[in-house]
Amino acid sequence: MPDTKANILLLGCGAVGTLAAVTLEKSERATITAVLRSNFTAVGQKGFTIDSIDHGSLTGWRPSHIERSVQDAMTHGPFQFIVIALKNLPDIYSIPDLIAPAITRFTTIVLIQNGIGIEQPFVDSFPDSTILSGVSMIGARELSSGVIRHDNPDILHLGPIYNTTTTRKTEDELAASFASLYRAGGASCLLTNDITCMRWKKLVWNASFNSVCAITGLDSGAIMDAGGVETIIRPVMDEIVTIATASGCTLPDGIQQRTIDSMPREINFRPSMLVDVDRGNPIEVEAIVGNPLRIAQELGCEVPLLRMIYECLKLIQWRIVRDKSLAVS
Amino acid sequence: MPDTKANILLLGCGAVGTLAAVTLEKSERATITAVLRSNFTAVGQKGFTIDSIDHGSLTGWRPSHIERSVQDAMTHGPFQFIVIALKNLPDIYSIPDLIAPAITRFTTIVLIQNGIGIEQPFVDSFPDSTILSGVSMIGARELSSGVIRHDNPDILHLGPIYNTTTTRKTEDELAASFASLYRAGGASCLLTNDITCMRWKKLVWNASFNSVCAITGLDSGAIMDAGGVETIIRPVMDEIVTIATASGCTLPDGIQQRTIDSMPREINFRPSMLVDVDRGNPIEVEAIVGNPLRIAQELGCEVPLLRMIYECLKLIQWRIVRDKSLAVS
């Protein structure tokens, strides 16, 4: 291991990003410069208040540096890793544009975000960079600005998106290096060479429950009580499995039922897009529904339910964006 | 014409029902006993305040009798006509059960309600009654309890549902008789012998715009601005036309575009189901979407978009009913 600490830029300090920051700092082998948006003022004044199953109770916690923008963060660079835990909103802003100033030939990009097909914009924009793609299985949420509740352990699945300009060996080493930091900080990081398949697996849940909750205003338990599992959830899951299979990812048999069973009826879980709709914040419709739909089209899969869900969510997104701009103007 | 006035029981004094009551009383050939629900107290105290394109400004207007229930209304019977302008919510309450006490062998039932296939429960429950089915093209809404704004003329399309126990001649005469009262009161009533086709025509609008507005929280103009006409509205209209055609009703060529053109972009119209969702009131999902879907199934039509819309609206209905019962308990 290197003697000096890894210098890491981290974007997005919601629940997932903040807990990644805590883990990486706790390794004592990394220095985090975090770029905050909505919670910059709150965290600047009082730090984070974190109640974490992995890290215990933290009050007034801050990463090494906090900044308002990538430009401001540059004074702490250059960075070996840029960890992106921002909401994935390609229809609202371009994350590649955002991080471009901080990218060097030696920067590795680590995506900890929802959805499928989310790596391509980074591959296209930064052909010399290694892209590590991460799927987080954490259970955590931001209760209010800078206040984070972490109920289920942080398990990060991580794997390189192998590109043509770097050797596989280098990419695997960089993945191992990041995973080692993560583990040294007290969380799990499981390396895989097929992260896309892991993304499809998580999408079985996200494209169905997350979408339908956002459209109907119901939490996961209420969807079950209302009989929505058989009428919508499972049929949408079937479509996701169809696309995944067509794209070459064989999901485990019965993943639909296993995914349903993973949500006990008594848990009234409010998925991220439902929370966003309730708060009037943009939803991750392109990463979670738009991208799988486009992959389905390329592969010639018929997915009428997913298409309908997508078109409804896009109209809801349009309303959210309009209302936000009205609130600002 | 008879010398005595027609004795009419009218259920549901929202905008459509109240204006029907005004028209029928204004004919001076009918006595209306209206059963009010949510606005009984307001109307009992101050009467209706009506601003009508057909009838001018009316303050403190009341029909001959107002009552809280069909049972209470019975003292004013027997009734030749029972006019039903209630919201059509078969998943919430049974209108046949509600009116059963007031039905005699000589009662004619007049339905002024949205949707398709809504007559069958009345045919089943009251085989001796003539059923007149009405499609209202009125533009009117209740601004607050008992306060009604009527912007577009009342045009009622009316036709009998021919059954086996009454002669067509009698049914046609009863339709003509009711239409004559309506016209004498200063509104339009157009007789047709294919009211079902008229229902499909109106459904091209209702199943698409009304549904999608309710799901997305957007008004008709916003749906257009957001590009929703091509992504959802027209595809859903196509499915309705497919079902109508399969059921033997030939809609005019290009009815989809004509229906879209009938909603100028600058009109930000909030359809009934969107208003209901906003107010936390049950929506007419079965009449507007459930029934056409069931007809599609019987006829073997593939209508995946309509099915998805139905399942989403049913979950939204479940939430509305749950929240209402929580508010009451």
From TrEMBL, chains A, B:
Q: Which reaction does it catalyse?
A: (R)-pantoate + NADP(+) = 2-dehydropantoate + NADPH + H(+)
Q: Which GO terms describe its molecular function?
A: 2-dehydropantoate 2-reductase activity
Q: Which GO terms describe its biological process?
A: pantothenate biosynthetic process
Extract the InterPro entries matched here: 6-PGluconate_DH-like_C_sf, 6PGD_dom2, ApbA, KPA_reductase, KPR-Related, KPR_N, NAD(P)-bd_dom_sf
Domain Ketopantoate reductase C-terminal: from-to ranges: 195-317
Signal sequence range? 1-20
Q: SUPFAM superfamilies this protein is in?
A: 6-phosphogluconate dehydrogenase C-terminal domain-like, NAD(P)-binding Rossmann-fold domains
**GO CC terms, sorted:** cytoplasm
Domain Ketopantoate reductase N-terminal, first and last residues per copy: 8-161
What EC numbers are recorded for this enzyme?
A: 1.1.1.169
Pfam families referenced in this protein's UniProt entry, alphabetically = ApbA (PF02558), ApbA_C (PF08546)
Q: Which UniProt keywords apply?
A: NADP, Oxidoreductase, Signal
Q: What does this protein do?
A: Catalyzes the NADPH-dependent reduction of ketopantoate into pantoic acid.
The family line of this record is:
Belongs to the ketopantoate reductase family.
Q: What is this protein called?
A: 2-dehydropantoate 2-reductase
Provenance organism: Penicillium cataractarum
